[in-house]
Amino acid sequence: MSFHWRTGMDQSLILYGNNLPILQTFAPSSVDLIYIDPPFNTGKTQTRHQISTVRDKDGDRLGFQGRRYRTVKVGSTSYADTFDDYLGFLRPRLAEAHRVLATTGSLFFHIDYREVHYCKIMLDEIFGRECFQNEIIWSYDYGARSKQKWPAKHDNILWYTKHPSKFTFNLVGCDRIPYMAPDLVGPVKAARGKTPTDVWWHTIVPTNGKEKTGYATQKPLGILERIVKVHSNPGETCLDFFAGSGTFGEAAAKHNRRFILIDSSLTAIEIMEKRLKRFLWSNLMEETENQSYPRVTFHLQEA
Ligand SMILES: C[S@@+](CC[C@H](N)C(=O)[O-])C[C@H]1O[C@@H](n2cnc3c(N)ncnc32)[C@H](O)[C@@H]1O
Q1: Cβ–ligand 1 contact at 18 (below 6 Å)
Q2: What is the pLDDT of residues 179-199, one digit of tens each?
Q3: Is residue 217 lining ligand 1, measured as CB closer than 6 Å?
Q4: Residue spans of beta strands (DSSP E) within the chain
Q5: Taking CA 239 as the corner, what is the angle to CA 152 and CA 300, rounded to the nearest 5 degrees?
Q6: Is 42's C-beta closer than 6 angstroms to any atom of ligand 1?
Q7: Distance CA 280, CA 298 (A)
Q8: How far apart are CA 39 and CA 111, in angstroms?
Q9: Does 295 score more than 60 pLDDT?
Q10: Are 77 and 47 in contact (CB under 8 A)?
């Protein structure tokens, strides 16, 4: 497969394909902030709806050289979120993340209790233990409660920087949260709220809310906006190469950052296209040789 995109473009992009060969085309130190939320190796089956794009002169999507396409549902697919060699899958991708990160940049790695310890050791090897900054616990309270053990109601987000001490950290840009005992701090402080610790209480994406895209593993926008605002600056480049429904892209675009999103699922690409269209001036669909469906690239048109 060949990729038509060039590094150095100042457009936001959604790229369809296996992230490893795509990342290998990026220039070193070319992105400022990376957030990734890879499959968690849960041992469960994830079900996805399969779609295909076919040429149709009346289709609602405009493609390369003015060709029109329409999307057809061709059924559902399931895959087991089980990797025989999970760390072997992640390692070259995390090595690429380190390579493409700018000197003041950060990686946020979202995982859960099943794999976090193994991933922490691997990330220490790749980034250096001195570049590990925080383990953020995202705590929520939703769903069934086990009666056999303490219900697991948190995810783990590991924060690594490219440099041990020089990195972007705009705490002033952070949203503030209410004091637990506002009466103890006085009315001014109580009204202003406080900055969070490394434990972030946040609801899951509400099942009926307008944020919901229908993507099974969608993460809450509020969590990712906090990461974008504190760990990058306006105009910088934010990358998510396990992008899913594009939550990180929306967080970046809302705060005037450029986004690059990669996913190997056409369903994810379709959802991102719909979700992020309002941040794109136009979209362009390009065909890739020797494929039964077109590769999709959405980008800001140059002014
Ligand atoms: C947990 S989901 C990400 C969800 C996302 N954070 C959101 O808020 O919607 C992980 C994504 O990684 C994608 N993925 C898995 N392996 C991939 C690969 N080798 N290259 C690109 N994407 C991949 C899956 O298709 C899936 O959409």
Answers
A1: yes
A2: 999 999 999 999 999 999 999
A3: yes
A4: 13-16, 31-36, 45-55, 61-62, 68-80, 101-111, 132-139, 154-161, 199-201, 237-240, 258-263, 284-285, 296-299
A5: 135
A6: no
A7: 8
A8: 8
A9: no
A10: yes
Angle at 182 between CA 176 and CA 188, to 5 degrees: 70
Q: What percent of the chain has pLDDT over 70?
A: 77
236 lines ligand 1 (CB under 6 A): no
Residue of 109, 228, 264 with the most ligand 1 atoms within 8 Å of its CB, for mutation: 264
- Which of residues 46 and 71 earns the better pLDDT score? 71
Identify the residue whose tokens are 């709220």.
193
3-class state of residue 109 by DSSP: strand
Nearest CA residue ID for atom 27, ligand 1: 244
Strand 61-62 with 101-111, pairing:
unpaired
Among 10-14, 69-73, 116-120, 247-251, the least confident range: 69-73
Question: Beta strand pairing status for 45-55 and 68-80?
Answer: antiparallel
Please report the domains of the chain, with CATH numbers, ordered by start residue.
11-43+82-300 (3.40.50.150), 50-79 (no CATH)
